[in-house]
């Protein structure tokens, strides 16, 4: 039709700008390639977001399961604390006055153990080889301003277990001495 070397005629006023078919095809081809590159980059971005979404969902499920497990464990710990408190309340009247005071002091101290102290004790226990005797709970005063939050049941449990170990040792000493 038109020779390739032909240039469009200059515009005259009121006349629309005309392109040759080859120029139009080249522009369409360029636009198509540009749109295809955009589509490819958007497709890659979409795949990246889909993989991130899958990863986030996996994390959500994992955290949900951990939260559920911790909730169950907290209920178990609360029940253990309740039962141990009942046992202590039943046993304490049968102890000598001196041992009663020691047990009551240990129980009160157990109620005041902070999370930091508990973590410190756990760290010390992990460093020491396992032994038959539980380490005594230190009777240092609780720092002011620290309040035991949801870990109070767990802290009371650890203190009650330490008090129970001290109580068992005291009972063995009493029996051995008699």
Automatic annotation (TrEMBL):
The keyword Lyase does not apply. Residues 17-128 form the Groucho/TLE N-terminal Q-rich domain. InterPro entries: Groucho/TLE_N, Groucho_enhance. It is found in: Nucleus. It comes from the Eukaryota. One of its GO terms (biological process) is Wnt signaling pathway. One of its GO terms (cellular component) is nucleus. Residues 25-52 form a coiled coil. Pfam families: TLE_N. Keywords: Coiled coil, Nucleus, Wnt signaling pathway. PANTHER family: TRANSDUCIN-LIKE ENHANCER PROTEIN, TRANSDUCIN-LIKE ENHANCER PROTEIN 2. Belongs to the WD repeat Groucho/TLE family. This is TLE family member 2, transcriptional corepressor. The gene is TLE2.
């Amino acid at each position: 039709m038109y020779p390739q070397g032909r240039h469009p005629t200059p515009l005259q006023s009121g006349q629309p700008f005309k392109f040759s078919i080859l120029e139009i095809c080249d522009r369409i081809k360029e636009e198509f390639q540009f749109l295809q590159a955009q589509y490819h980059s958007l497709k890659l971005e979409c795949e990246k977001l889909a993989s991130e979404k899958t990863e986030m969902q996996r994390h959500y499920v994992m955290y949900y399961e951990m939260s559920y497990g911790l909730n169950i464990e907290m209920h178990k710990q609360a029940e253990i604390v309740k039962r141990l408190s009942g046992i202590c309340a039943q046993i304490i009247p049968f102890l000598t006055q001196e041992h009663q005071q020691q047990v009551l002091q240990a129980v009160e101290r157990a109620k005041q153990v902070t999370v930091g102290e508990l973590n410190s004790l756990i760290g010390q226990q992990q460093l020491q080889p396992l032994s038959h005797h539980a380490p005594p709970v230190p009777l240092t005063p609780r720092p002011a301003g620290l309040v035991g939050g949801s870990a109070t049941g767990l802290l009371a449990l650890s203190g009650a277990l330490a008090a129970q170990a001290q109580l068992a040792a005291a009972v063995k000493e009493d029996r051995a001495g008699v």
